[in-house]
Backbone:
């Protein structure tokens, strides 16, 4: 094995993924296990880490982790850092679990226009890994169960907001009358239904009325029952873009470039919706968590970086 | 028994409720059974009607019904009538099931600003029963699983819109992470949490972000876990009022009076939310369905009405 400069772990609720990185931040190896913090049962955190790392364990190599492992229910709590938050602020917020353990990255906190708190834990690392530390203002989108949108500039997360897009889609499809329509055959094709949903999502209607359109379009024969799930997905992604664009405009971020950090499949759906919204967006890099963990470790002095 | 001029049945998915009315439309008696169209099993519609009416059956007294009994899955389909729809148009749309049967009121159909269809079936009768036939423009709100808002003027339903408020609340509370927070003790009191939710609902945020506030407020200790359900209820009712007010403004109905047709408990919640929104609203009459069925029967000539 080439010599490692850092072991970086993206440690969430269901899974843990470990990266072995060299002193330039390049990924030498990846190991993933279903050892998320809710899956450990009686297994202690040090034992879970040992199982995840296997023969990578080397006390001379520093270790760093991000994600729910730093929550109150995790190994050790790493208190939230307020936005705007720089790489340096995150590195100052690192919490050590103790000897043989790992340094844990704090989550981020902010408040929305109404003063209601918002939090993220794990995504801050992906966000700072996705955007070069010297980049101009960028909107980073991490779609998912709880989508995160962050405004980033020169290694600082200026602000962010959360949309419950993925979880709401699942609740609508699995637990409302809209989903009960969805057992029939699909129509002309999923993309068409998704695009039509995006159009409605980008429109001016109210959410609780607009979702009901899945039912009435299906009843009227204007939407094939098997396309309801895709149509609703488009509606929610479109609405997320519409509402969060408004949020970004208020922050003066409406003219910035948009980076979508997601799997290929999910990123493609968002890029498709952004295109319909007339917003330029590109897919972010893979392994953003590993890059983010490397950058935070460097800022903390855990990794000796050669400077020219 | 005093002599009846009409038997009127509000026949929905889970329940059927029959009214015995005199020739002034006054209610002489009420009978309700869990004989909704999805509860009949092998029971035929004529037999279900006989069981509901019991000794009220009198072939000389006309019968009329509204609700899902007129849907494609009901006794006989009474096709939707397009808005704007008058009492006369509804009476012309009555569909007879045949001898010994009943005349069924059609539902209403419209299209929203984006051309997406909207429908109601049963509520049109409550709406026309709640508002005197000679009344000026009124917004009638029927809150519930699928809330209906209708603009009514002099016996004509001009237009309406649906919000999936009740069903969305149940899906959020029972099938998302927001509901899983809600098992703890409640705080200062439900009303306070409901009011705070209404404030957020009336605000300018996006729906999928605003609902996530239930989680972040609870995590931050700003909302007692046991108050999450009430807070979410307030948020959804407030958002329904915010969005539908916009719909009403576009229809030129923003200055009209608002009538809430619901049970005492549910009406009180909406009136409370309307007050916070600075909109004057009052509770509508009880037995609006019976009154609506009587008015439609009169318009159809089923009931001989003495005119002065």
Residues:
């Amino acid at each position: 094995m080439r010599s490692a400069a850092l072991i970086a772990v993206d440690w969430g609720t269901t899974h843990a993924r470990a990266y072995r990185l060299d002193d330039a931040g390049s990924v030498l190896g990846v190991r993933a296990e279903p050892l998320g913090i809710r899956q450990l049962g009686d297994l202690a955190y040090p034992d879970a880490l040992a199982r995840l790392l296997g023969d990578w364990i080397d006390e001379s190599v520093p270790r760093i982790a991000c994600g729910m492992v730093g929550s109150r229910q995790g190994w050790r709590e790493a208190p939230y850092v307020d936005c705007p938050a720089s790489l340096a602020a995150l590195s100052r917020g690192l919490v050590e679990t103790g000897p043989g353990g790992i340094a844990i990255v704090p989550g981020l906190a902010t408040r929305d226009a109404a003063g209601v708190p918002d939090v993220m834990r794990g995504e801050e690392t992906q966000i700072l890994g996705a955007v070069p530390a010297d980049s101009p203002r960028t909107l980073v989108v991490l779609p998912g169960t709880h989508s995160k949108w962050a405004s980033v500039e020169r290694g600082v997360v200026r602000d962010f907001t959360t949309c419950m897009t993925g979880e709401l889609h699942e609740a609508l499809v699995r637990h409302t009358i809209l989903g009960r329509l969805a057992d029939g055959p699909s129509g002309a094709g999923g993309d068409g239904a998704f695009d039509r949903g995006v159009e409605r999502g980008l429109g001016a209607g109210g959410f609780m009325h607009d979702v009901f359109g899945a039912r009435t379009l299906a009843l009227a024969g204007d939407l094939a029952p098997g396309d309801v799930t895709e149509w609703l997905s488009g509606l929610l992604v479109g609405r997320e873009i519409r509402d969060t664009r408004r949020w970004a405009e208020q922050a003066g971020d409406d003219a910035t470039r948009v980076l979508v950090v997601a799997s290929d499949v999910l990123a493609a759906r968002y890029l498709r919706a952004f295109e319909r919204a007339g917003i330029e967006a590109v897919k972010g890099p893979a392994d953003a968590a590993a890059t983010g963990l490397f950058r935070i470790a460097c800022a903390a002095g855990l990794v000796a970086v050669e400077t020219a």
